[in-house]
Specification:
The protein is of the alpha/beta class. The chain contains 12 helices and 8 strands. Helix 3 (102-115) crosses helix 4 (129-140) and helix 6 (188-202) packs across helix 8 (221-233). The longest helix is centred in the middle third of the chain and has 15 residues, at 159-173. The two termini are 21 Å apart. The mean pLDDT is 96.
Length: 335
């Protein structure tokens, strides 16, 4: 499905850090129409290295996210190259672009939603960092979010997840061409190294042992690594690190409302929730989700049983796993 990309001007955005991002913009698409009751809105934020284009893979007629029934809003993360980012900001640029938190993202998203005349969300959902944003919406605006689906994501980035991200970041920054972020040409060696290291975390051990990479069009582990290296060379390095910083610091309780008390933040969520980790995810494991579900008021732990690791829950990545995610969307929204 192709929808028109639009940009919502936020003006000078005061961030959680106290810094200001001048002339900030959110890039977004909408599918469908807001109904008279205003009760058909689905918010579907993007994930790390993903844009609205990838999320649109599971939006369509007859699907769980059907524009004929729902008003679907897909918002790009700040820093992802579509919304305001180091690579596209006319005045800040890479060296001056400030740290952006997920609280900054979701607060800005609510300004957009209010501009679209949205008062409540029938569903906030997402995969990976998209799930973390959906979690933030449900915790920061509990009275506005009726349902929550968090696929392969968490309420707070775990220490082990943080360590994984430090590894890929170090691989990128080790390239002398990165020059502390002041590169004039893309640091291609560092970007390739970033992608190759990341690939080892994106899939499970079983994925490689059973040669499931062949189902994704790769003849060997080496071919898969080469594909990841090439793909990441197309990204802007400072954009990658900007959003990675948001991911590393993700925490629904890191704000004045909850003061770092994660159990308090989780228990404040009113939404009916399905928390969906993948059984073989290496950095958002089911063990972390079980702890969260115990603290939520009205939540179900629904494990995505897959050998594909973290990517199992990605929009349109693995057909069988995508069907499982869409079934959960249907259960929450009602078919």
């Amino acid at each position: 499905m192709q929808e028109r990309l639009e940009h919502f001007r936020l003006g000078d955005l005061i961030l959680q850090s106290g810094l200001v991002l001048p002339d900030a913009q959110l890039a977004y698409v909408t599918c469908g129409t807001l109904n008279a009751a205003g009760d058909n809105v689905v918010l579907f934020p993007t994930y790390y290295t993903g844009t609205h284009r990838e999320n649109l893979a599971i939006v369509g007629t007859g699907r769980a996210l059907d524009p004929a029934r729902h008003f679907i809003v897909i918002v790009n993360l700040l820093g992802n190259g579509e919304s305001s980012s180091p690579s596209n900001h006319p005045t800040q640029g890479a060296q001056l672009f400030p740290h952006v938190s997920l609280l900054d993202n979701v607060s800005a998203q609510w300004r957009l939603l209010e501009h679209l005349r949205v008062e409540r969300l029938a569903l906030a959902l997402g995969w990976s960092m998209g799930a973390q944003q959906a979690y933030h919406h449900a915790a920061l605006f509990p009275e506005r979010v009726e349902r929550l689906l968090a696929v392969c994501g968490s309420a707070r980035t775990s220490p082990h997840n943080w360590v994984f991200l430090e590894g890929v970041k170090a691989a990128l920054e080790a390239d002398a061409a990165f020059a502390g972020g002041a590169y004039r040409e893309p640091p291609l060696k560092g970007l390739a190294a970033f992608g190759r290291v990341y690939a080892g975390w994106a899939y499970s051990q079983t994925f490689f042992r059973e040669r499931l990479y062949e189902q994704l069009g790769h003849a060997s582990p080496q071919a898969l690594l080469s594909a990841w290296a090439r793909e990441h060379q197309a990204y802007d390095a400072n954009d990658l690190l900007c959003v990675l910083s948001s991911w590393q610091r993700a925490d629904i309780s890191d704000n004045a409302l909850y003061g770092g008390d994660l159990p308090k933040a989780l228990s404040a969520i009113e939404a009916r929730a399905i928390i969906m980790p993948c059984s073989s995810d290496l950095y958002f494991p089911p063990e972390d989700s079980r702890v969260e579900v115990q603290l939520l008021r009205n939540a179900e732990l629904r494990v995505l049983d897959s050998k594909f690791g973290h990517i199992a829950g990605g929009p349109g990545r693995v057909p069988r796993d995508t069907a499982f995610v869409e079934a959960a969307i249907g259960d929450l929204l009602g078919r």
